[in-house]
Each structure stands twice: as structure tokens, then as C-alpha cells.
Amino acid sequence: MFGFLARYGTVIALVLLVVFNLAYTRNFATLQTLNVNLTQVCTIVIVAVGMTLVIATGGIDLSVGSLMAISGALAPMIFMGTIFPVGNIYLAVAVAMIASILVAGLFGLFNGWLVSRFRIQPIVATLVLFIAGRGIAQVITNGNLQTFRVPQFQWIGLARPLGIPAQVIIMAVLVAAAAWALHRTVFGRSILAVGGNEKASELAGIAVSRIKLAVYAISGLCAGLAGLVVIAINSSSDANLVGLGMELDAIAAVAVGGTLLSGGKATIIGTLLGALTIQLVRYTLLANGVPDAAALVVKAGIIAFAVWLQQQHRV
Amino acid sequence: MTAQPDQAALLLDMRDIQKRFAGIPALADASLQVLPGEIHALIGQNGAGKSTLIKVLTGYYRRDAGQVLFERKPFEVGSPHQAQVSGISTIYQEINLVPLRSVTENICLGREKRRRGLLDWSAMHAEAERLLSRFSIGIDVRRPLSDFNTATQQMVAIARAIGFSARLVIMDEPTSSLDEREVSVLFSVIRQLKADGVSVLFVSHKLDELYEVCDRVTIMRDGRTVRSAAMSDIGKLELVAAMLGRDVAAVEGHATAFGERDRSRIGDVLFTAEGLAAGQLVRDVSFDLRRGEIAGFAGLLGAGRTETARLVFGADRRSAGEMTMEGASYHPARAADAIAAGMGFCTEDRKAEGIVPEMTVAENITLALLPKISRNGILNEARQKEIVERFIRELDIKCSGPNQKVRELSGGNQQKVLLARWLAMNPKLLILDEPTRGIDVGAKAEIQRIIRKLADDGLGVLMISSELEEVMEGADRIFVLREGVRVAELEGQAADEEDVLAAMAHGGAAKEAA
Amino acid sequence: MNSARLVRIIGTYGVVIALAALVLFGFLRYDRFLGLFNVMSVLRYNSMFALVALGMCFVIMTGGIDLSVGSVAALGSVASALASPHGIVAGLAAGVGAGLAAGLINALLVTRGNLMPFIATLATMLAASGSALLLADNQTVSVSYDSGFTAIGQGNFWIFPIPAVIALVAYVVGSVVLNYTSTGRTVLAIGGGEDASRLMGLRTDRVKFLVYVASGCLAGLAGVVLASQFGAGQPIEGVGWELFAIAAVVVGGTLLTGGSGSVLTTLAGVLLLGILFNVLNFENGMGWISLSAYWQSVIRGLFLLVVVLLQARLTARRETA
Amino acid sequence: ALPPLAKKDKYKVGFAQTESNNPWRLAETKSMHDEAAKLGHQLVYTDAAGSSAKQASDVNSMIAQGVDAIFLPPREDKPLVPVILAARDAGIPVFLVDRDVDHTMAKPGEDYVCFIGSDFIQEATRVGEWLVKNANGKSKIIELEGTTGASAATDRKKGFDDFIAKHSQFTILASQSGDFARDKGRQVAETLLQAHPDADIIYAHNDEMALGAIAALEAAGKTPGKDVLILSIDGEKEGVQAIIDGKIGAICACSPLFGPKAFATMADYAAGKKIPPFIKNEDAFFDATNAKKDFDIAF
Ligand SMILES: Nc1ncnc2c1ncn2[C@@H]1O[C@H](COP(=O)(O)OP(=O)(O)OP(=O)(O)O)[C@@H](O)[C@H]1O
Ligand SMILES: Nc1ncnc2c1ncn2[C@@H]1O[C@H](COP(=O)(O)OP(=O)(O)OP(=O)(O)O)[C@@H](O)[C@H]1O
Ligand SMILES: [Mg+2]
Ligand SMILES: [Mg+2]
What we know:
The structure holds 4 protein chains of 4 kinds.
Chain A: H1 2-7, H2 9-24, H3 31-56, H4 64-79, H5 89-117, H6 122-141, E1 146-147, H7 151-158, H8 166-184, H9 186-196, H10 198-203, H11 208-234, E2 236-237, H12 246-256, H13 268-287, H14 292-311
Antiparallel strand pairs in A: 1-2
Helix pairs in contact in A: 2-13, 3-8, 3-9, 3-11, 3-12, 3-13, 4-5, 4-6, 4-11, 5-6, 5-11, 7-11, 8-9, 9-11, 12-13, 13-14
Chain B: E1 12-21, E2 24-34, E3 39-44, H1 50-57, E4 65-70, E5 73-74, H2 80-85, E6 88-91, H3 103-108, E7 114-115, E8 118-119, H4 121-133, H5 150-163, E9 168-172, H6 180-195, E10 199-203, H7 207-213, E11 216-221, E12 224-230, H8 236-244, H9 248-252, E13 269-278, E14 282-290, E15 294-299, H10 305-313, E16 320-325, E17 328-329, H11 335-340, E18 343-346, H12 350-354, H13 361-365, E19 374-375, E20 378-379, H14 381-394, H15 411-424, E21 429-433, H16 441-456, E22 460-464, H17 468-474, E23 477-482, E24 485-491, H18 497-506, H19 510-513
Parallel strand pairs in B: 3-10, 3-11, 6-9, 9-10, 15-22, 15-23, 18-21, 21-22
Antiparallel strand pairs in B: 1-2, 1-4, 4-5, 7-8, 11-12, 13-14, 13-16, 16-17, 19-20, 23-24
Chain C: H1 2-29, H2 36-61, H3 69-83, H4 88-111, H5 117-136, E1 141-142, H6 151-154, E2 156-157, E3 160-161, H7 162-180, H8 182-192, H9 194-199, H10 204-230, E4 232-233, H11 241-251, H12 263-285, H13 293-320
Keywords (chain B): ATP-binding, Nucleotide-binding
Organism (chain B): Mesorhizobium australicum
Protein name (chain B): Sugar ABC transporter ATP-binding protein
């Protein structure tokens, strides 16, 4: 019984939250509520997928929020023609999206390079870009807000094919792909092996450095994508605020989802559930008018409880 | 069963101990009685529950049922710390020390010397040196433990354990990484302990050792105590039979493992190494290996055998030397290159460099095989299942199934998983560093038979073992290393033990050295 | 061996050398950089970070991490500000007590609840921050200027700021504990291998417990200094302190994976990062450039990068030497 | 007593900004820089990144460098007092801009020269007054607060809530923090609109959150300005544009352009003129009647 509770701890927490809301939160059982929650949780999930892979190798990535800011700052500069003149808006948007995600990926690669080549501990290696990255985004925009109305770009945050928000589709695809890759591919197996025992993996012929480079780069790409989603919804990009505090949200989602922070064991679906739990906590507290200060305390309690529940099936 | 020792005189009395992990019993009904001042052997197959019984005793695990009396008082400890304070000092199976800290700290942590309330470092260094000198080891105790090899670390662990003035010292396979010289030093220390009235609980798969030092023996099988007797009352075959749960007659077949070799099956040259060198540890090693041949490396602690193997496998960078593999020149920059060339390397330190503890048995076995069980980077589950099940069967790995975590297996079974990893890749050349470390006699024979069979099928094997006997029996040729230099090459099964020993110690044959 | 030893020394004391170089640079480039006012105000201000980093240093040496230090300091500042009318002792006790409570929660979550330190202290970080706001009713809380409480932060001991003296004493005690008590050695052992340490019979849980409690208390003490120095309990102060502390500890040469580290070089790490801010301010005062906050974060990031890269090189060389 | 300021052509003045993470602060910084450049003064600029403690330490480094005068927007009303006193003791006059400090701890005209700025409470009250006149039957309010604990948020809440309390036709359904940020403001608005579908007024403590609320309303299929009346404070260009577009009802301006007034006050002080303790900014007020006409005074 207890084992069951533990294994499905996050699911149970989620169900309890839903039940609570059905009973106490006005207007909860509506499609729009689902919509609001899903769109709000998207960016965290997208970032947390990359984070899960990094954590699975025994690392951590503090720079994701700053990388979101960089990609979010870069994209409008390109499609609005601040950097170079744009001819065709579709082309400009395509270039903007690809370039800014790639730049974030390159910064991620830089993290991976520090970690694998110089053996700098991941927290510190990514702390560098955590500090400097947002500064870079602010420097390139001079700290200014960029506002835009470019539907060709904003579909990523606003479009609703078949009534489902585009970013929710992107999130679902990403989650499915990552979950599949983690358990069904050589790459995924290698990630877990590196996190589980790096020396043994090296001796078993796994290219440890390349795996590490790859996961940090992927984390960067995910952050870059998330940055675009955020600015698209808001029709504006503010390098000071895009992705602020995202690293802690993403890590919390990963941990609540049941992934070990020490590496070697990971679950993408768990991460999705973890993010949903945190999102629903936030929604519940807001919708029921719990003041910000008290909400912090409650949120802390729920995170600790959910992770504690997860922990119980380990002897 | 033999007559039970006098109840009142017992130092330790464990009865009806039960311990389950996730519902699966590791200890079903285990009992253990140790007398004051005796050396007591605890034996059993891999996974029989010896280590678990010890960890239950020292409070690392909480028992599910049963009672423990120590010095006739109920013994309820919640942590290894309490056990230590109560007079039980333990060396666990995997070396459990802190590699980053100095030797002194590893020896003295937990019973620090103080002066005016603060630690007295010079006294502690002196204490560490004094304890190690009992094992004729003179090292710089200020250096981090990780600077030293497995054997030295094992000696440090032993020194630590006997440094506590305990009434019971538990040693879980202390000799598995020691060579004979060190083992004999250890035995003299154990006898000294006995003379001082200290009891020793000794776990080992090397039966000869047991007969050499132990007074009594407790035999476990499948989590139960099946027999307890005075060492002198029980013959070797009988012992093995009780351990394996078979008749004496069935066991007799196990006696010789490698068996006579048909030398005609040895083929052409597979691998050569010329003048290998790296740092201080490997200075000049040349050897060659033929298809179907088993070559052994003999040498003392720190002779450079492991280091040489690592160079061959590309795990470390060499500073000089040429190698060829199958006639082509071979320059491994990393382990992946060696694997691509058809080599496998089963390392001596299974905890640090071998198993991935959080992964399943299946995932561990196929770790070096990923390119072969996948297409376009996508794993073929069916293929994986087939391979894994075959090796679990062939090596008789005791686990609840391919999906059990390796961390939950007993030491010996973890070793088998590692062997399976390398056998599964179907290598041309297999380097085995201490392949049967910690493996019970039954399984050991099985593994040796497998090695032999593979060699007969054309596999070249490079075997490193601290058990001279294993090298002498198994190897077709023996290369003796001493201080990083290959000092002798001897014919395997024809070699004279004296010659090998002399080469190991002095670098020449017995006659010359004498 | 001799050159290897030299490398080892540079590796350990690299941060001290970097600190000396930065101070020298400031001295040569700016008037009044080493003036009494500047030196003392830099010490006074950075003593809070020094206290927090000391606790963090011990936590990190056990292989853990304490993300809650910043918001615990904020909580401590509010608690001590509220208690300050009752005198200096009450203020001190309230601030440190709040830190102690938070530290106890961390300690229980980590040792009893078996939570990963990152998550346990993340939760405490949120909770402490919420509690600080609740306690302060979302506002800064004025301290009493009549009870003498402000002496802790604003007073001097001879010419030295009292907070700096407090921090220095804390570091000396910390260093002695680390190097000359079994608790200190156990801290390092746990970081080097927790399971092994437990099997070695060390009281790992007890020591881990102590370490988180100590970190909480030190953060609380930093909060007392914060309240006293600026005359107010500040519920929303402390953001990012944990990262400053982690950076200082790492720059000070302590391994984040635990098992190896030094207390005094952590102090040098704090000063190095703290003085960097001061240097940037002075550079802005030169009138050549006016570095925006943005450039400052880029420069700080690069600076951290250079220091850790240098360290990585040195330790790599030390391993092969 | 206040330290004197010598009459010079060129001053070295300090400006210790609190943070640079929103358009308002950026505009303020730019205004200070521009005015200093225009007058040929040297501006020593620091940024406290949102920490009162760091801001105090920044001021200390200015004192150490021996600047002639200091312009300080104190992040909070108490923690900056000790350094203001330290500057006074070091003979450096301090001018507070945009936020004041606690007068029980430091007094204008004695410890610092004066406070130049707006009155946050009054800003909120003006928004309330407008609402009473223009509510058109709308009455259920969602309030988007600024960063919890920040004085602007506290005062803008107090001013508005106190005013509304006197007008019983209005009720505040929910009041939550949106951190002065557009994205957070949007998310909070989405949630609150979901939980309170009957809300028809949104009052945001700044324009950024109001713009976030507009995005939330549009995503929920409602028409901002029609279904829900939006009110805010600041007067960003984008906000005023939203008034022109009919999405926001009214904005009480809170001008960040302190440069000219600040430096003029300093010149007066150096010339020995008597400086009043509070120099109040005459904040503009935007609604549909003047948004187009006064667009240029938005920042
Ligand atoms: N932590 C654990 N979780 C689950 N099962 C475990 C755990 N530890 C041990 N076991 C199981 O308990 C049984 C006994 O293991 P134990 O380590 O005591 O064997 P052993 O007799 O010491 O063997 P060896 O000679 O190989 O060291 C094994 O089947 C093992 O798989
Ligand atoms: N006397 C010694 N003191 C300290 N370290 C030693 C000593 N002798 C050898 N070593 C260590 O031994 C290692 C090299 O020996 P290596 O392990 O290759 O030898 P080996 O012949 O394989 O021995 P083993 O039987 O332990 O496997 C190095 O890590 C070296 O530091
Ligand atoms: Mg065992
Ligand atoms: Mg070896």
C-alpha cells in the first residue's frame, strides 16, 4: 500500500489537488481552466525536459532562464529588422526562430564544454551564464522592451489549431519524443549510464564527453524555444524578465516528478506530472485568493511533501 | 549438526534473523554464534546473505525478525556507529573508506586523538603509521587515500578496523584484493588478535585460507544457516557440498576448473605490445598474445599489472610503446577505440569502474553492447532480452529478473554481471583483471570453465589475478611484472611456483636469485 | 616534487593571490580605494555575505547545498527588527533563533525525510521568504534606535566594523572546528562518501544535522547584521545571496561535490567577489565609461569563468603532478 | 545640519539607481544621464539590482570616492537612512528622487536636501476617483499588485483600497501580486478571470501588468475596455497607446523623467536658495480625452 502511494506519489498529489479544486474553486471544471493551466505550464515543461536530461547525467543547468532571455531578445531583433533589414516577413521569422534557438543551443554547448572539457562542476559552470547570460541579453537590447505584433511569429504562442494551443502541441511532442528517446535509444541509455557511473560508462565505450555536450546543448535549445513561446504570448520581449527564476521552477518540476538529482535515473513523464502539480498548486492558491506570502509557504510545503512521497519507495 | 557451543560462553548469538528487501527475503532464518577469542568463518554462495547478515548485525539494516545477543545482553543498534561503540568493528565487502581524505583520517576517524579538546594531528599520524607498520606498509599517511591502489586501500581498511579496541572484528572478504604476501601478513595480525582474546568473523571464498586460520565455520545457503561446525570436523568437499546444497559426490567434479589444455588450439599472434610505458607505474612492458591463448600477468602489489591493462585498453594515455592488434598497428585514445578493435576489459574495481548501480541487470549487461543491439540509435528490446536472458542463465546470476537493479545484487553476482557485459560483446581479446574476485567456489569454477571454452573458440585472454594458483592453472603463458617492468616470461601450466614467486620478488628465476 | 608542491600551493591559495592582485589593481588605479572609509564600508557590508558563505561552505563540504540562506537572512532580519526594542540581546536572539528554526527544518528534511538537499532547502527558501513577508506584513520593519541594537551593524570595535569582527571570529571558530575537531573531519568525510562514512561508524546524520542547523543560524546572524546595519528588517532582501555564497565557496577552492575544502579561502572568495563590485563602482567613478548594470553582470560572469577555469587548470595539473 | 555645496561649473555627482529591470527605471536612468551630459557634469552611476543593502553599499562607495552630491531613489524607506546620514556626515548633500525615506529617521532639510517625486498613494486615489466617475455600472474589481513588499506596491494598494472602501458600490474580488511584470501579470490575470468570471474591472499597479491583463482577456475571448475596464499607473507609451486603442480606461502617470528637475534643484541649492522639503511632481493623468494630445509626455 505504501509502496503504491510512493510510486504514484505525484499522481496522487495531482489527483488530490484536482479534487480539492472541484470542491472549492469556482468555475474550475471548464475547458478554459484546462486551457489556462496548460498554456501556463508549457514553458516550464519545455525547459524541464532539457533539464531532466541534464540532471540524468548527474548535472544541473542554472542558466536556462538566462538563455530564454537571450533567445527572447534575439528573435524580435531579427524579425523586426533591428539587426539586418528584412525582406520577406516569413523568411525573417523563420531565420529569427531558428537563429535564436540555435544561439541558445550554442550557449548550452558552451556549458557542456565547461563541464566535460574542464570538469567544472555543473552548478558553477552554468552559474557563469546564469549571471552573464541575462546581462548579455540586456546588453544587446540595451535593457529595452521590444514590442511587436507579428502574427507570423506569434502563432507559436497564440495559434490554436483544432482548438488546442500551439505551444501545448509543441510541449506534448517534445515530451513524447524525449520520453521515447530516454528509454528506447542508445542516446538515452547512455545518458543514464553516464549519470549512474561515469567511469564505468567511459570504460564501456560510451562517449561520455559527447553525451554531456549533447544534453547541455539540448537544454539550451529547449530554453531557447521556451523563450520564444513566452515572448510570443506577451507580444513583447523584456530581457530583464523573460525566464526569470525559471531554473528553480524547472528543477522543482524535475524533482517533484521523481527524477533523482544525483543522476542515473530519470523520468520525463514524471517531470510533466511534476510541472503540472506545481502549476496546479499555483493556480489553486491564486484562484482562492491566498495572499502571496502565505502562498509561498504553502507551495514550499507541497513541494517538500511531494518529493518526500517520491522518496519513500527507496529503502 | 555438531554440538552447539556452550550458550553462556557465547560472545555473539544471532538467532532466527530475517530480512526482506521489497518483499524478497535475503535472510530467511539465519543464525550465527561466535565464541570469545575464536576465528570464525562465515561462508556461502554468492547471494547467500553473508554481507546482509553482517549489515544487520552492525545496524546498517534493520532486521525484520530475530534476536541478537552480544556478550549475553540484547543487542539493539540503530547505526554502525553504535555497533562500533559497543565493540564490533567491521570491514565491509566493498572498501568503504573516503578516498579524498588522507590515510590518517581514514584510519583515525571515529576515535580521534585529542589534546586540550582539539585534534592532535601528529599523534594521529603516528598512530596511523604504527598500525600500518604492523602490515609492513610504509606510506605517506598524509596523502589522500585515492593516491593508493586497491590492495593498499584494503590494508588501510583493515588497519582501521583493528585500530578500534573491539571485541569482535568482522572482515567481509578482506583478502579478495590482496596477494599472498599480504594475506600472510593479515593472518599473522588475525592470530595476534586472537591471542589478545578478540574474536574475528571472517568471510572468504578462498577455502584454503579458511582452513589456515579459522577455528569454526558457519555455512549459509539462500538466507539460512545450514550448518555450523569446528573447522577441523569438516572436510573441504563436505564444506562445498553444504554450501552449494548438493551431495559430496556431485561436488567432486568441481575440483579442477581450467583442466588440461589442448595446446594445439592456440593460433597465430593476435596482439603485441612493445615497450609500453606511462609514468612511474609502467616503465617497460612488452608481451604478445595469440588467438586461443590465455596469458597471465603475475606480480606483487603495485607491480603495474592493472596499469598495463589500462594502457592496452586505452583507458589511460601511454607515454611510449607500440601495439598491434590482428597485425595492424593499434593506437587506442579511449576505451571506445579498444572496444571497436574487439577488446573487452573487466576491471578490478567493480564498484567504481564497473557496475552502474541504479541500472538494471539487463542494462548493465548490454552497456558495452549498445551499438550492436540497436539500429540507427534505436534499441532493439527483443535482441537485448535474448542476450540478457542467455547470460543470466549461463552464468547463473542470482537475481529476481533482468529488471532488478544491480545495486541490489550480492557482490559476487555483480561480478558476474560485469563478466556477462564483456562476454556478451563477443570480443577477440578479453582482459580480465581479478575476474573471480569475490566469487564463490561453484561459480568460480563455472567462470573458469567459460573462459577456457571461449579461449578454445579462439578468444585471446589476458588474465590478471592475485591468486597465483589461478594464474598458474589457467594461463598458457605467464608474464611476470615487477615495478612496471616485464621481468620474466614463463610457460603456464608447466611453470614451477617457486620460479614465478622468485621472479615476482626479485625479477629473476629461483635459482639465480638464490 | 618541489614544483608540484608549488603548484599545489598556488592551487590552494590561488584565490588569495587573485584577491591581492585585485586589491593592488584598485590601489594603483583609484584614489581613495584603500582609504579607511572605503575599506571599512566594504568590510562592513560584505560581512553578511561572509557569514552566509561560512555556513554554505560547511554544507557544501558534506556534499549538500543550502539554497535557503538568503531568505532565511531576510527572515532573521525581520525577526530581529521586531525584537530590537527589547534590546540588543533580544534582537540577536530573535534573528539567530529564526535562522535556527529554518536550519532545523532543513536538517530534519534532509536527515529524517531523506530529501535531496537541493529540494529541501528550495522549499525552505520559499517558506522562509513567505514567513518573512507575513511577519513583516509586507513592509520593511523599522528597528529600534534606542535599544542599542544598531550597534551590532553600525558600531565599531576600535576602527573595525563590528560585523566584520563578528565574521572574523566566526571564521576562526569555523576553521578550528573544521581542522581540529572530529565533527569537522566528519563533515569532510561525509562529502567524500556518505555511505562509506556511515559504514565507517561515523555519525553522519548527526553531523549533517548540525551543519544545516549551523548554516541556518549563520544566515540568521547575517540577518541580524542586515537589520542592524540598515536599521530595518527587510523581508524581500537576500535574493541571490545563495548563489553569491556558492560562488564564493567555489572560488575559495571547495569542491562542490564535497569532501575537500577550506574555510579561510572561502573568506578570501567572499572578499574577492565583494571587492569586485566595489572596483566596478570605482571604475564608473573614473568618468571613462559608465558601465550599466548589464555590463556589470557580464563582467562578473566572465570573472567567475576565469577564476574557475584557472582553478580547473591548477587542479588538473595537481592531479597529474 | 545640511552640508553646503560649492558653486562649480562641473560637478561629480552620484546616481545610485535601485534596479534596471523595467522600462520606468530605464527611462529614469536615461533622463539622469542625458541631463548630466547636457550640463557637462560627471555622473557616477551604480545599480543595486533590486537590493536595498547593495544600494546602501553603492552610496558608500560614492562617499568614498568623494562625489559632490548624490541623487538617490531609495529602494525602501528605512534601510537607506544610515547611509544618507553617513553622506551628510561626510559633507555630501543628498537629493532623494522618486521615493522618500521614513521621516521619523531622517528629515528633509536637515539630513537630506529634499525629496523630489510623486505620491504613490495619491496616484492610486486619482485612479479611484476616475473610476467612480466612469464606472458605468461596472463594479467588480480584480487588483494586480506590484512586487510584494515593494513600497510602490504597498502604497498603490493602500491608496486604492482605502478609497474603494469608501464607495460601497465597488467590491474587490481578488487582489494578487503580478510582480510588476507583464508575463506574471498576464498569468495571474488569466487565473483570476477564470476564478472570477464576473469581474469587470482590472486595476493594475503598473502598465506592464495592465498590458499583460489585456493579453489574458484577449486569450479568454473577452474585449478589454468593453467587457472589462482596465486602470493602471505609470504612463508608458505602450500603455497610453492602449488608451487610444480603447483597451485601457485610464492611467495615472508617474513620470520617471527626473533629470531636469533634479539637476535644477541641485543648482538652486548650490546658489544658496531655499529648497522646499518636498518638490512634488505634477503627474499627468491619461484617459480617452487627452491620450492622443498628451501622447508625447508618456515615456
Ligand atoms: N539493498 C538490497 N536491496 C535488495 N536486495 C538486496 C539488497 N542487498 C542485498 N540484497 C539481496 O540479498 C541477497 C543476499 O545478499 P548478500 O550481499 O548478503 O550476499 P553475500 O552472501 O554477501 O554474497 P557475496 O558472496 O556475493 O558477497 C542477495 O540475493 C541480494 O540480491
Ligand atoms: N608502495 C606503494 N605505495 C603506494 N601506492 C602504491 C604502492 N605500490 C603501488 N602503488 C599504487 O599501485 C598502483 C599501480 O599498481 P597497479 O594497481 O597497476 O598494480 P597491480 O600489479 O595491478 O596491483 P594490484 O594487485 O593491486 O592490482 C598505483 O595506483 C600506485 O599508486
Ligand atoms: Mg557479500
Ligand atoms: Mg591490479
